[in-house]
Amino acid sequence: MKNNTVVVMGAGMVGVACALELQRRGAKVTLIDRREPGQETSYGNAGVMARSSLMPFNNPGLWRGLPKLLGNQTAQFRYNPWFLARNPRWALGFLARARQSTFQETATALDALIRLSLVEHKRLMGEAQILHRLRENGWLFLYRSAAAYAGSQLARDTMDHFGVATEALDRKALSDLEPALRPIFDRALWIKDASSVDDPSQVVQAYARLFVARGGLIRQAAVAGLQAHKDKHWKVLDDAGGHLEAERVVVAMGPWSKAFLAPLGISVPMAFERGYHMHYGSAEGVTLKRPVYDTGGAYVLSPMERGLRLSTGVELDDCDAPPRHAQLELAEKAARQAISMGERMERDVWLGRRPTLPDSRPIIGEMPGRPGLWLAFGHQHVGFSTGPGTAALLGAQMYGDVLPIDPEPFRAGRFLSA
């Protein structure tokens, strides 16, 4: 192309992966973010890349558990009623898409995106020379009772349908696989089609260093606005009074994409599934070999470079509402029943925001009626798992190449119109 320039806004997993992919396709790419790469939502996830993540939260099983969830007392789910009252388009749309037909469409789409991403992640890790951070021994779903395991039938049937490799474990088999866990779990499901890393933020940073080593530019500044410019170009404004011009721009700002696009008259039906994490030391000789998800305790515990990372469930609230630590307290109590954990390793609790659209699928593609404005956000809990696949799909769309997966489930026009 005559002027093959792109600005990618947002330096999380999705944005950095998009920058690398577009650079690979010959574009002159600038990546801009207010913070260093991998320091926002991508910083604090559980580090899991799993095909089991094809199960969205709004699946048909949601209806059975809804009365308990609406009680607003569980470690799995908390919400601010005023946030839901102010966002009925999202709330009603999210519930409406928990029906079987839409769930099947979403699971199919997410499975394709995750499978593509797993291949791309491994390629990028090799090129960035960080394969030592990768574990390919799966992860575990833990069930505290036979009834809890029986209640997971929909998830197990769905994984079977999509050919996700799993193995059911009894108490002894679980103890053999993860001897550090106390014998409080009746059953477990070993998700073998899963990988994990020991520090997701470091993975994003390594990808960003690869981008720079290949000639990419990273600008650390807060994006203040976006304007259509002359000759079908775009102007990206920053908070220091500077600007960048490019033929195309990519909005990959995760939960902040909604507010950023609003001044352009683009109304994104997005909610924020906030979550917390904390690192803990472990008793001598006590460790995990892979991440575990305690379905009853509603937390994920991951072995990280800095210790055991405890990640919580969902809290629906405004993007930048003050933190509330009730979920972390409940999750920590449950985790200490399962494994011997040391003291908290940080003073402050980390808070992240998972940007979720009503159908639990991201938007990946060009904005209708706005040539050159490309969107890559809304990845809910699976941005780390799906970032490189998102980049591969967006790059193929942008340059008119053979598409690696079906783009239809992710098109912007399902929620946004010219």
UniProtKB/TrEMBL annotation:
Pfam families, A to Z: DAO (PF01266)
Record bears the keyword Repeat: no
InterPro entries: FAD-dep_OxRdtase (IPR006076), FAD/NAD-bd_sf (IPR036188)
EC number: 1.-.-.-
Alphabetically ordered keywords of this record: Oxidoreductase
Gene Ontology MF terms in the entry: oxidoreductase activity
Domain of life of the organism encoding this protein: Bacteria
Domain FAD dependent oxidoreductase: 6-395
Protein name according to UniProt: NAD(P)/FAD-dependent oxidoreductase
High-level lineage: Bacteria, Pseudomonadati, Pseudomonadota, Betaproteobacteria, Burkholderiales
